[in-house]
Amino acid sequence: MHPEIPAGGPVSGWWAYLEERTCREVDADVLRDRRLSAVRSVWEALRPLGVGLHEAERVVHARYQALGDRVEHTPPDPLDLPSLAALAAALPDRVAAVEAIWDGNTVHDWFVDLVAVLDAPEGEIRLATIYHRPGSPPPGAAATEAGGALAAHLQVPFHFASPEVPDDDAPRWRTVQRPAEGP
């Protein structure tokens, strides 16, 4: 028999349903800013009680608030030209283009991946992920600035199909290039 599930009560009420070991693991993940791992632990532990992913995220968010300044937040990926150029120079193949791509999840909301599109093999490598951070430019604007600067430095095209509006189905650079190349 399951304990009575808190109906409409505060999200932190779910915390009391976790085993002590799980609480320690979640707090350790939160203190190291490993949000996804913490959410997974909470969700797996509370799923038998009917708790969904969104509620598990809210429990972890409450732990971030409770632990406050003790959380060692992961610094954002560097977006300055020297750092990005060094990453691009270390790639296994020539960069054919720099592309910014929207993505999203329930933990970080919308974010932008800045990628180097490689010549051959037709691959790509993520250079940076740009999340929304208070006091910083929106991810689309930051990606446009950093990606445009890197592309100009490398003398390759920069492609961002939807810089203003998050769209993870926007056309990719290779897709746009193929029709232009002809048969």
Q: What features would you describe in this structure?
A:
The structure is a single chain. With 183 residues, the protein is an alpha+beta fold. 40% of the residues lie in helices and 17% in strands. The chain is built from six helices and four strands. It has helices at residues 20-31, 35-46, 53-67, 81-89, 139-154, 173-181; strands at 95-105, 109-118, 124-131, 158-159. The chain has a four-stranded mixed sheet. Strand 2 (109-118) and strand 3 form a beta hairpin. Helix 1 packs antiparallel against helix 2, helix 1 (20-31) crosses helix 3 (53-67) and helix 2 crosses helix 3 (53-67). It is elongated and about 55 Å long. The N and C termini lie far apart (66 Å). Residues 1-10 have low confidence and may be disordered.
Quick rundown:
With 183 residues, the protein is an alpha+beta fold.
Helix-residue proportion: 25-40%
User: How far apart are the termini?
Assistant: 66 Å
Rg, Cα atoms, Å: 21 Å
Largest sheet: 4 strands, mixed
Question: Strands across the major sheet, in which order?
Answer: 3-2-1-4
Number of strands: 4
The SSE string, one letter per element, is HHHHEEEHEH
Mean pLDDT: 88
What is the beta-strand fraction?
15-25%
Helix tally equals: 6
Unreliable spans: 1-10
Given the C-alpha coordinates, what overall shape results? Answer: elongated
Structural class: alpha+beta
